[in-house]
Amino acid sequence: MDDSSEKNLEIITRAGGDPTLKLPGVELRKLAVGRGGKEGFSTGTATFAAGAALPCHTHTFSEIITVLDGECRFIVEGRTYLLRRHDTMHVPPGVPHHGSNARKDIPLLAHWTYTTTLPSLAKCETPFQHRDLEVPPTGAPEQLVRFGKAEKYELAAGTKFCDLFGARTGCPDICGGYGEFAPGTGLPCHTHEFDESINIIRGSAVCMVAGRRHELTNCDTAMVPQGQPHRFLNESRDTMAMIWVYARGEASRTIVDAAYCTGERCMPC
């Protein structure tokens, strides 16, 4: 991952590199680091071999997990949930939890977001009685969004978006969601007042930032810093999809002239 943050340039990270951290049966890859909140944020992927698991642990920051492929058995203080594709779980700081690959035949791939640039964990005991649940009970600290029940909306013709976490689900400093683009579609050129991480989870995308063009696929990730004009396009013949994360509790964007994305015009200082 190239560090261009001092120049306020986008950072493109290819997902096929070596793992940031290897544990028995589990590989973690950090793909983006952004500014925002008290400690910034980071995003990446976790790959679990068939049947692999992480031990019970806590964090001093929020963790958000979105399943990309396979099924995850996610346990929070004994409350056990089966997460399927694009289901998303938010666990606040200090809450004991652990996850595993619920399948014995295929790997599990998940996208993670932490509200820190320096993730760490503390192992803990598991003196909890397990019970299977579909949704968290009233008063539980975790927040679960089932993708199939999440509200879908259009940001441009041929696109489908939904929010998976944010201020409304207990994440005051960051928000994120899923975006899908039909062939030949894209969002208009725009800017944000915060950093953004975009992970391409299906198909291929063209990322244009202030005249610079990048092609992303297979969980490649772009970190676009605040103020940079950018847009994502699907120039392929297949559906493209992404997981986006903003360093803000609520999503917002400012539409600007397309010439700022192509590089024909420069943003004012």
Please describe what this structure looks like.
The protein is mainly beta and 269 residues long. It has 2 domains: 5-147, Jelly Rolls (Sandwich); 149-262, Jelly Rolls. 1% of the residues lie in helices and 43% in strands. The protein has 1 helix and 24 strands. The protein has one helix spanning 259-262; strands at 11-13, 21-23, 26-34, 41-48, 57-58, 63-69, 72-76, 79-83, 88-91, 97-101, 108-114, 122-123, 131-132, 143-145, 159-165, 175-181, 190-191, 196-202, 204-209, 212-217, 221-224, 230-233, 240-246, 254-255. The strands form 6 sheets. Strands 2-3-4-11-6-9-14 form a 7-stranded antiparallel sheet, with no helix packed on it. The chain starts with 10 loop residues before the first strand and ends in a 7-residue tail after the last helix. The model is unreliable at 2-6 (pLDDT under 50).
* Separation, N- and C-terminal Cα atoms: 27 Å
- What is the CATH domain class of the largest domain? Mainly Beta
Any idea how many domains?
2
Question: Would you identify the CATH H-level superfamily of the largest domain?
Answer: Jelly Rolls
The CATH topology of the largest domain: Jelly Rolls
Quaternary status: single chain
**Strand count:** 24
Shape label: globular
Query: What is the helix content?
Result: under 10%
Which band does the percent of strand residues land in?
35-45%
Name the structural class. Answer: mainly beta
List unreliable stretches of 5+ residues. 2-6
User: Averaging pLDDT over every residue, what do you get?
Assistant: 94
Order of strands, widest sheet = 2-3-4-11-6-9-14
CATH architecture of the largest domain: Sandwich
| SSE pattern | EEEEEEEEEEEEEEEEEEEEEEEEH
